[in-house]
């Protein structure tokens, strides 16, 4: 074949290939495609490995974050548990403090109204029972006599504080043990005394508020001739005191005639001093006293009994026949209607809670102070500097406890007075187990049957005498 034929054949094949749309790759192009395919596979493999590493890194990061969150959550739980334990401990401590305060509520009422509990402890430690022999006051001049009375008052105050201390120790569980350990832990006994004092002050505040209300009810509900006019407010003491005719009369010492308009005017203008006497009419039977015999009817006042019963028995209502040995009943207040809550309450009274089976000088003194304060127009406790309330409290206790033990007549009078108080204060005590009705029942039947038997025995004799033949008259 010639070269021209060969070339023609080559072009002919190329044309056919071109027309058929297929171009035969050259060796160079084949190598390029193979190299490109290899690089593409390597790239995909590298990309796949990168994505795998990324996913692993993401999982590791998530696990790390989860661990961190778990640690935070654990720390938060630990903190909450610690806070809860702290709150629980604080709650228990507050509960214990509240319990101690509740125990302290009794102390101002039955032990001491004015002397702080911590002072009682100090007096207990400092007490020296060996008293020095005092000289006869008859041989003393005026200055020495004054000093003598000051020493006597201080001595008596110490005795009262020691007695009050023993009442506190007998009332508050663990108090004596805490005092015994005071040498090693002074802070503990001081903290205990502070909590007890808080309870005592709180109770006094409650009693003052209650009596402000109840006294208005008692005086406003009296029979019309003896009723407060104008009526007293039960939410304020503002209109009380000597400016009000009824409360002024009750506050007036028995040595002054309140019914005299001139006397009333002088008292209100402070031309007559009323703060030098504790013998006020409110403390007396029928609210009248004899200046020449101050003990006659003293501490027999109806309002005093009502005050005691309101505080310690939660019932100050007294009917006319409940106050014995009182010839006049006009001043006795009519019973104040009690609320349904009061009538149906099954709560223990303070007397039951404190184990009071009888009236004590301390509780009478407490009621004297609160009654006198409730009659006044003082805005707040401790702000009325016109009257010595602490002196009144101490003197009432001394009236019972400092009397001459060798004076039989005085001791008999005081014993009878306390007995009378017990009868009035516990007039509503439980009589379900009393044998008195049975004794009365049997004795009444026995007496009346005996009387009937005597009448029956005497009846036949009278009948026979009536049927006996009468002697004929002499001719």
UniProtKB/TrEMBL annotation:
Region (Disordered): 1-101, 319-344, 451-475
Annotated InterPro entries: DUF6698 (IPR046521)
Pfam families: DUF6698 (PF20414)
Annotated transmembrane regions: none
Protein name: Uncharacterized protein
Record's compositionally biased regions (Low complexity): 32-41
Residue ranges with Basic and acidic residues bias: 7-18
Highest taxon in the source lineage: Eukaryota
Feature: compositional bias, Basic residues: 42-56
Biased composition (Polar residues): 327-344
């Amino acid at each position: 074949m010639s070269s021209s034929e060969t070339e023609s054949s080559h072009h002919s094949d190329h044309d056919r290939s071109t027309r058929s749309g297929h171009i035969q790759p050259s060796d160079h192009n084949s190598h390029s495609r193979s190299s490109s395919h290899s690089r593409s596979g390597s790239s995909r493999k590298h990309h796949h490995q990168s994505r795998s590493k990324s996913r692993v890194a993401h999982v590791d990061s998530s696990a790390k974050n989860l661990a961190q969150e778990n640690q935070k959550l654990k720390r938060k739980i630990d903190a909450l548990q610690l806070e809860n334990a702290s709150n629980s401990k604080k709650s228990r401590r507050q509960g214990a403090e509240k319990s101690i305060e509740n125990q302290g509520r009794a102390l101002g009422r039955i032990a001491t109204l004015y002397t702080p509990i911590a002072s009682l402890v100090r007096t207990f430690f400092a007490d020296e029972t060996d008293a020095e022999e005092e000289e006869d006051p008859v041989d003393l001049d005026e200055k020495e006599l004054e000093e003598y009375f000051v020493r006597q008052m201080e001595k008596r105050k110490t005795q009262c504080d020691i007695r009050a201390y023993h009442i506190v120790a007998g009332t508050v569980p663990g108090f004596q043990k805490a005092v015994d350990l005071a040498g090693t832990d002074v802070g503990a006994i001081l903290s205990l005394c502070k909590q007890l004092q808080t309870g005592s002050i709180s109770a006094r505040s409650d009693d003052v508020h209650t009596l402000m209300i109840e006294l208005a009810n008692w005086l406003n509900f009296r029979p019309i001739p003896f009723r407060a006019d104008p009526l007293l407010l039960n939410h304020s003491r503002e209109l009380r005191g000597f400016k009000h005719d009824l409360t002024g009369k009750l506050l007036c010492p028995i040595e002054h005639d309140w019914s005299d308009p001139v006397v009333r005017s002088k008292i209100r203008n402070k031309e007559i001093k009323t703060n030098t006497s504790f013998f006020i009419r409110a403390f007396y039977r029928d609210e009248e006293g004899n200046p020449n015999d101050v003990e006659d009817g003293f501490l027999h006042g109806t309002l005093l009994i009502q005050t005691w019963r309101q505080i310690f028995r939660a019932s100050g209502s007294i009917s006319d026949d409940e106050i014995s040995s009182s010839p006049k009943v006009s001043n006795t207040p009519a019973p104040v209607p009690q609320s349904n809550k009061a009538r149906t309450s099954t709560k223990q009274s303070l007397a039951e809670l404190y184990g009071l089976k009888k009236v004590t000088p301390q509780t009478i003194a407490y009621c004297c102070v609160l009654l006198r304060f409730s009659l006044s127009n003082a805005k707040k406790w401790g702000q009325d500097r016109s009257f010595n309330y602490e002196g009144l409290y101490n003197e009432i206790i001394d009236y019972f406890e400092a009397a001459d033990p060798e004076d039989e007549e005085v001791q008999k009078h005081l014993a009878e007075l306390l007995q009378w108080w017990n009868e009035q204060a516990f007039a509503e005590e439980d009589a379900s187990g009393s044998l008195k009705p049975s004794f009365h029942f049997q004795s009444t039947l026995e007496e009346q049957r005996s009387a009937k038997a005597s009448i029956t025995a005497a009846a036949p004799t009278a009948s026979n005498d009536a049927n006996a033949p009468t002697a004929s008259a002499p001719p």
